[in-house]
Every structure is written in C-alpha cells, then in structure tokens.
Write a structure and sequence with these properties.
heterodimer, A: about 250 residues, 3-stranded antiparallel beta sheet, B: about 280 residues, mainly alpha, 14 helices, about 70% helix
C-alpha cells in the first residue's frame, strides 16, 4: 500500500447529512494511484454522493477528507485539473455537438488545439462516436451521451477519475472499449473510483470493492470472491420477495 | 381520448406558468411604467404579446411523445386527430443551431433577444427614415435594446441546464467564465445599437452585467428556451435599469468618463463574483 502522502483519496469517518437524512455515515476510503475502487450497492445507497463529495460538489458534515492531497472545498481551481468526473446526469450542453463537447473540454482544461484534436479523434474512434460526432447532444441516444460525457472526463488525462455508472446504457462492445481504456489508464498510474451495478465489469476493473447500503459501507474486499461478485452481492443484499401479483 | 385531452390540458396549464416568466423580466416593469402614457406603451405590449404567442400556440399540444402516440391503443381517427395537434412546429429552428459559439446558439433561443432586435431595427429605421428625428431619442432607443437584454445578464449560466456543472468543475478562474458568458451580451447590445448609440449601449450593458453577476452566481432563476428570461426586479433589475439608463444617457451626450466608470465597475464585479463563483462551486 502506498504511503498516505501519495494516496489520491483519503476519507476518514466522513458523513454527509441533510437535516435528519443521513446520506453517508462513517465512511472510510483510501485510493492510491494506479488502483481502481468500485462502489456497489442498491439504488439510493449513497454511491453518487461519495463521487460528488470527492469532486467537491458536496461538503462533508463530519470526518476528514483529502483528495490529491487537499480538501476539495478549499483546493482552488488548479486542483480541478487533476480530477475527471463522469456525473450522474452527464451534464451535457443540448446546443453542442459530440465533437464540440470535447473541444470545449480541451479548452477549459488548458490543452492545446492540436492536443485536443488528436485526443478527440482517438476517443471518438475508440468509443465508436465517429459517425455521430456532428450530432447535437439533444439528438443523441442515451448511450452516445454517456460515451460523450465519459470522453470528456478522460480527455485531460486526470490523476483521479470519478465515474458514476460508466457502463450502464452502453452496448456490450462499447462496455469492452470503456473497460479496456480504464485498464490502460489504471496501469498508467491513474486512480479510478467507479460506481456501478454491472458487476461483471467491476470484477475485471476494480482492485477493491465497497458495498454501500443506506449510506454505510457494509462490506469491502477484493473482487475475487467465491462464486463471483454477483452471487456475493445477492447474499448480502437480498432481492425483495415476489408478491402474489395474481393479476399478472 | 378524454384522458389524453385531460393530460394535454394539464400540460397546457403548466406551460402557461412558464409563459409567466415575462412577469419577472425587467422589460415588463418598464413597459408597465410606460403604460402611464398609453401611446408609448402600445408598441411594447404588442411586441411582447406577439413574441409570447408564437411558442404558446405550439408548445402545449406538442407535449405527447411520438412513441406514446404510436403505442396507445387509439383508433385510426383518434390517432389522426391527435397527430394534427402534436406536430412539432416552432420548437426547433435548425439554422440557429449551426452558429459558432455555444452562447450565441443559446441566446438566440430566448425571446429577450428578439425584442432587442425589434428595438434595434425600428430605432435605426426611425433614425434613417424619419423626417426630423430627435437626436436625444437615439440614446434612449439604444438603452431600450440594453433593457431588453438586461434580465439575461442576471442568468448567465441558466441556459446551460445541468451542464452548468462543467463550469463548476473547470480548473479555470471564475472571472474567465463570467467574461466568456457576458461578452456575448455586451457584443450583442453594442452591435444592435450601432445605428443608434453603441457607446451608450456598451456603458449600459457593462453596468447591467456588473449588477447581474450577483444573481448569475448566487441566485440564478431557471430559464427555458423560447421564453423570456426571468430575474429579480427588486433590487437587481431596478438597479440595472436605473444605472444603465443614467450612465448610458450621459455617455450618449459625450460624457466619456461615465463609460470609463462603467468599465471599472464591471471589471471589479467580474473579479469579485469570479472569486465567489470559485467558492460556491
């Protein structure tokens, strides 16, 4: 394990509360460079909240939090250059095309035009977005929008990648492409924190898995578990029993 | 069938609330004030009414998604009848989309810009073709262009929708984002006032932006395409109107120090609210 100074993420006893609602309680996480951690758990368990917290979009109510050596709320603008975020709502501009989103992203993160153009071409090809490059986001399918937002998160080669459900809504071939580029990024030293319900992809990507349930980390471990992650998950979080549903 | 019409009626009622966005637009307050002199206000009310009418007649009935219409078990006659009402009409104007610049595309999908354009065209026509145009009116007309755009200056980021997050996440300084958005309004106000008093309009718009930064950063009001933008008239809109008219008229009369003053106030506001923007992210 890398020493604490080198860790990209260090959370100790972090909580987020909105009045009486406890979105996150006593949450610990350590992520060194070149490692991937996956957050899994039921809908509404707090996975997106953790990602927003690390991106500086939420403020902790208790505990201590360091991302790339700084507390996100006090980190300043330059710190944001090292963070890449695929947000839950994708945050795309309806009035921009797929390719224009990447141009804008390159400009905002200080890449040169040539560099932006070169990276854009590679990402569009990798993600099979080449044909739809001039289509407006408002006219794109959900999968294309997701891939566009993913490409924006990756374009500036951040140190830490925060991905909210990167595989959901993608076709199997695109999932493979996304997985391949994430594995490449990880081996290059990028830290990756991903939330996902696609457990077969999580197993191939993550070095550590954290199960969140109602704002608490109820289980954590390596992905290699007996019977696979899917089976292990269902042992921990049982599916709701089927009601009679006589009308069906 | 009645269920669908009931749903459409519900959509229409909700849609009519968004048409009410004009109620919190600076233009409406000034028009209401001008109504004390009904002859001067008639033109303004006509323009506002016509611009509101265009989206209003197409929007509520275009609410049924095509796919739902195809899936619902309707008879052929019922389907045809509903289709007549649900054809998308004015919602998309493809040529607008191809303009360079995100902000240009967004601004041209607000009704405020079209009011400004009408003031610009009619004002310039008055200057060029009226038998004995009053030079004092040029400055006032250019400031009507500014007034039409002033509420937009309180909503620099709302047209981005959820993509506002991109500015928050960007490592660039806050003032860069405020300038990026504001320069389009400044440019638009100046260009549209070229035939009247571009310098007066520039001074007025600088002050509108300086005041508008507050709401843009701290209290944005949601905006929709093909609607008037909404803002807060007291105190921000009121300040925008008073400051832009006083300063703009002075600059039109050749008192250039007011233009320098407006520029200073704008730059100070740019850095102050840029700093606030970085911390509210």
């Amino acid at each position: 394990m890398a020493n604490s100074l080198a860790n990209l993420v260090e959370c100790r006893g972090v909580a987020i509360r909105y009045g009486d609602l406890r979105a996150l309680e006593d949450f610990d996480l350590t992520l060194p460079p070149g490692k991937a951690c996956a957050l899994i758990g039921p809908n509404g368990a707090g996975k997106s909240t953790v990602l927003k917290l690390l991106a500086g979009l939420e403020t902790e109510s208790a505990g201590s939090l360091l991302v790339n050596g700084k507390r996100p709320q006090d980190a300043g603008q330059a710190w944001k250059r090292d963070i890449g975020l695929l947000p839950e709502n994708l945050a795309l501009f309806d009035a921009l095309t797929v390719a224009e989103h990447l141009e804008l992203s390159g400009e905002l993160y200080g890449l040169s035009r040539n560099e932006t153009s070169m990276r854009t071409e590679e990402l569009l090809t990798l993600l099979s977005l080449g044909e739809g490059r001039d289509r407006f986001a408002a006219a794109c399918s959900y999968g294309m929008r997701k891939k566009t937002a993913f490409a924006m998160a990756l374009l500036h080669a951040p140190k830490l990648l925060l991905l909210d459900e990167p595989f959901e809504g993608l076709d199997p071939a695109s999932c493979e492409s996304v997985l391949a580029v994430l594995l490449r990024a990880k081996s290059g030293g990028m830290g990756i924190l991903v939330s996902s319900h696609m457990l077969m992809h999580v197993e191939r990507l993550a070095d550590e898995v954290v199960l969140l349930d109602r704002g608490r980390a109820t289980w954590r471990g390596a992905t290699v578990t007996e019977g696979g992650l899917q089976e292990h998950y269902l042992r921990l979080i049982a599916a709701a029993p089927l009601p009679p549903m006589a009308w069906l | 069938m009645w269920t669908i019409f009931l749903a459409l009626a519900r959509c229409a009622v909700r849609e009519s609330r968004t048409l009410g966005s004009v109620q919190s637009n600076n233009l409406l307050y000034v028009t209401a004030l001008l109504s004390l002199q009904p002859a001067s206000a008639l033109f303004l009310w006509t323009v506002i009414g016509l611009l509101l009418l265009a989206p209003a007649i197409t929007a509520p009935l275009a609410k049924i998604p095509e796919i739902r219409l195809a899936l619902w078990p309707l008879s052929a006659g019922q389907g045809r009848m509903l289709r007549i009402f649900t054809r998308p009409a004015l919602r998309r104007v493809p040529w607008l989309w191809r303009l360079p610049g995100l902000e240009a595309r967004q601004l041209l999908r607000t009704l405020d810009v079209y009011v400004a354009l009408i003031f610009s065209v009619t004002g310039t026509a008055y200057r060029l073709f009226a038998r004995d145009p009053d030079p004092a009116a040029f400055g006032v007309l250019s400031l009507m262009v500014v007034l039409s755009l002033s509420t937009l200056a309180q909503n620099l980021f709302t047209l981005d929708g959820p993509a506002r997050l991109r500015w928050q996440q960007s490592p660039q300084r806050g003032y860069v984002h405020l300038w990026r958005k504001g320069r389009w309004l400044l440019g638009l106000a100046t260009v549209l006032s070229t035939g009247l008093s571009a310098q007066g309009a520039a001074a007025g718009m600088l002050l509108c932006l300086a005041v508008g930064h507050h709401n843009s950063v701290l209290a944005p009001t949601e905006s929709e395409a093909w609607r008037f933008s909404s803002g807060r008239f007291f105190p921000h809109g009121f300040l925008q109107v008073v400051a832009s008219f006083s300063c703009g008229i002075a600059v039109t009369r050749g008192e250039w120090q007011f233009l320098a003053g407006a520029l200073l106030v704008y730059v100070a506001s740019l850095f102050l609210y840029g700093w606030v923007l970085e911390r509210t992210s």
